[in-house]
Amino acid sequence: MKRVMLLLALCLNACSVNNTVQQITPDANVLRYSKVQGYEDRFVNLFARNTDYPVTCNEDCYQPQKNIACHAHMQDCTYTGDNPELSINAGFTVKWIGHASFQINTESGQQFLFDPVFGQFDWPVNWAFRLAAGFNRREPAQPADDLFWQTDAVMYSHIHYDHFNKSDIDAFARNTRFLTPLGFAAHFPKGGFKIAEMAWYASKTIGDVTAHFVPAHHFSNRIVVPYLYEDENTTLWGGWLLEKDGNTLYFAGDTGYSPHFKQIADRFGSIDVCLIPIASYFSEESPDWYRQVHTTPEDALTAATELRCKVMVPWGYGNYSWQMGDKTSHSALFRLLTMKERLASDTPLYILNEGEQVKF
Known about the structure:
Layout: H1 2-15, E1 20-24, E2 68-72, E3 75-79, E4 92-98, E5 101-106, E6 111-114, H2 125-133, H3 145-149, E7 153-155, E8 177-181, E9 194-198, E10 203-206, E11 209-214, E12 224-225, E13 229-230, E14 239-244, E15 247-251, H4 260-268, E16 273-277, H5 287-293, H6 297-307, E17 312-315, H7 331-343, E18 357-359
Parallel strand pairs: 1-9, 6-7, 7-8, 8-9, 15-16, 16-17
Antiparallel strand pairs: 2-3, 4-5, 4-18, 5-6, 10-11, 11-14, 12-13, 14-15
């Protein structure tokens, strides 16, 4: 009983400790703000609404694939094909946890997480999704405690519920660094967490890795109470580029296709490892809007070419996804393989099933 009371006291004490928040905004920042009266504090994308897509698949986009085994039509699948043998020697080990969540390890022993979400949405959105969609997503295997305690930094791309889960945060060690877009820290629970809010093209060095926050073409919101409160675009969004000993790994975050990919390549040169989303682009009601903020598989292939990726790892689909904006759990992967062949893309694809990892 004494031990239980001690743990409870420690928890209550930790939960009352204010977080440490650092804001990093380069002098030559490229932030853009709304020009709508009354909303001048809201962020907007670097590039205006895009309608110029280099490639669009309009028919026969989901061809059968012998290397994908499914329990139903493009649903509940496993990739069974061979991946290419590559000699990139970038020093990054990539594990796909599921949906947008990745674990990255370096040869020097550092560990980073992108957008870790191990359960359902935070309450009460989990209930709302269950009622609206009729299912809960299949959850990844619960991580061992050492995943949380050995993580040097957690990097979030944006505030949406499938990328940021408050319920996971307390499990991390208090010396873990949290790197976030601007405006993000207000959404953290108290607990003495170390948070660095960053503008586009801001950088922070952790050990021997430099993390650069880079633009994406997306949006943000977390809370909407009609006629009372909304937080549309009050927090920034973006992707992350890790740089170590001249080697680079890029995590795009949720994004639509826009010239920001070329801009990133202009700044950093060819990227060794690219983690690029390929899902959540499908909508019968609002197809133009969905494509604005989520890359189709052919958009992702185009982006990989513009980024000069030495390898591309696709994500966003899968057995652990919420299937928002998708025909099925793996329709995006079917379309990706269809379009890679049709476009004769020379960017190597390395396709992981959830829980698998590879060293590049």
